[in-house]
Amino acid sequence: MRQNGIIIALDGPTASGKSSTAREVAMRLGYKHLNTGAMYRAFGLYVLQWEIDPADDEKRAWLLDRVYIDVDENGNTLLDGTDVSAKVEDPKVAQMASKVSVFPDVRARLVALQKEIAKEGGFVVDGRDIGTVVFPDAEVKVYLNASAQVRAFRRHKDIFEGNTSLRISDVVSQIEERDRRDMERENSPLRKADDAIELDTSNISFEKQVSKIVALAQGRIEVEDPHGR
Fold it and tell me: What is the sign, positive or negative, of the torsion defined by CA atoms of 130, 159, 48, 34?
């Protein structure tokens, strides 16, 4: 087993419950949580702070050379040492993150950071390419999924609550479009790893999905370290 434990990779499409599930699983196991989506949003925030055009290859490369993104003991996202967990939830930051994440150099830099952060194990890592690209050797891989309608309801409730002008059907369309982009992109497309367990969360409770993943992880931990060292 790795020095600090195993790596649990949680992948899946947008609004499938990856981050909230990963956070709870990590807490129950005494592990750390690495939200890779927040890392992309942190770089999106960095681009906005420096007011550069993300399509400018030279300026983007300059930013990538100087940026450092990490997580603290509580799983908060740190941008050059400053906790930006709240700032990266801004819709403008998320929009920029979607733009910058298509560039191979951005993905290469952030994947390298993700590998460095969690290499010793003891992490629950969530994203879209964790079990296939970032940690293909993760000891536990789970692919969380749910219908587009269920995911749209969650997204509408969590982010757009109070916005009566936004219809659920609009959110469904947005989510389906995001799924298409994620699955069809050339670099690190969203897909289920061959050895991942798929968990459809459309009709099960949050507690049940967390308990299933914790049980899987505990079983693997016992296999990796039967004497509990």
Answer: negative
**Is 229 part of a structural domain of the chain?**
no
- pTM of this structure: 0.89
Per residue in 9-39, pLDDT (tens digit) is 999 998 888 999 999 999 999 999 999 999 9
Question: Tens digit of pLDDT for each residue in 109-160?
Answer: 999 999 999 999 999 999 999 999 999 999 999 999 998 888 887 776 665 5
Q: Which CATH number is 25's domain given?
A: 3.40.50.300
Q: Is residue 164 one of the residues assigned to a domain? A: yes
3-class secondary structure per residue, the chain: CCCCCCEEEEECCCCCCHHHHHHHHHHHHCCEEEEHHHHHHHHHHHHHHHCCCCCCHHHHHHHHHHCCEEECCCCCEEECCEECCCHHHCHHHHHHHHHHCCCHHHHHHHHHHHHHHHCCCCEEEEECCHHHHHCCCCCEEEEEECCHHHHHHHHHHHHCCCCCCCCHHHHHHHHHHHHHHHHHCCCCCCCCCCCCEEEECCCCCHHHHHHHHHHHHHHHHHHHCCCCC
Angle at the Cα of 64 (from 62 to 66), degrees rounded to 5?
75
Task: Domain count for the chain, please give it.
Answer: 1
Is position 212 within any domain? yes
Q: Which domain holds residue 204?
A: 7-217
